[in-house]
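Task 17 of the worksheet. Students: predict the tertiary structure of the chain below and write it out as structure tokens. Keep your answer in the requested format; marks are given for formatting as well as content.
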Amino acid sequence: MATEIIFDCDTGVDDAMAIMYGAGNGARFVACTVTHGNVPVHVGARNTLTILDAVGLTDVPVHQGAARPMAQPLLTAEFVHGHDGLGDAGHAPSQRSLAGTLAAAEIVRLARSRPGELTLVAVGPLTNIGLALLLEPELPRLIRRVVVMGGAAGVPGNASETGEANIWHDPEAAQLVLDAPWDLVLVGLEITMSTAMPAEVVARLEAVETPHGRMLWQSMQHYIDVYEPLVGMRTCVLHDPLAMALALDPDLATYRLARAGVELRGERTRGQVVADLRGFEPDPTDPLEPGVVRLVDTLDVEAFHEKFLRALGA
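Model answer:
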């Protein structure tokens, strides 16, 4: 059976990768909800429609959500994703209309209407999810599983010395999400940075001939320009697609439970996910315990890359 997904995003280049990965690997998108993050929320919402249209998912509703974080100013990342969020590749935007319901309210409505059935995949700042938890305290009981691209447990950040961008952009919302008693997989930089595509994968992607694959390759050029000096070769890291991949196929990875929280007050560490990696007793044993998350321990990177390429027709 297809995995039924609410996809919460801030659609820039790697969100587009995640949508295309899901579309090509059996995801059934029930709805997309959009937050601020890579770009302002209205730009991300339009980009989400554009990418859904490109893969033929013209019936998936897109709900616009939070325009700013809960407790700090709005910051966006066009320098990574291009001014339009899709690598300034000149793609014609979708002319489809957004759905009328605000994102957090729609997450709650869907969860209430389909208790225990839906997987929530979040690849942007967690403002919409935090607001949904405030609206419906029973949300953790209603959602089947949560997969978040976020955090940097024990490794450097990418938005600050210690903070990963999605957590760092709204730490208060992230803490609400980590504190909720649901089965939460945290897909952080400690594992996503291992997904940089080797040269042979990049070559296959460059040669792809499907319309949506060509569209993504064009959008990725700006993104690859950003990553090339960081990685040392012409490639990029597949952050958001990995969260989608593990929502659809958890067996691509192994996991460990850890207690984790978000630093909210540190002058240089605000937005850092602090996970207890010491292995001291008592180890957490219940994934539904508030503050306990699943961290990705190992990943079959080669299988992940193959599934990514397959989704694009490569």
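Marker's comment: The longest strand covers residues 253-262. Residues 211-231 form the longest helix (21 residues).
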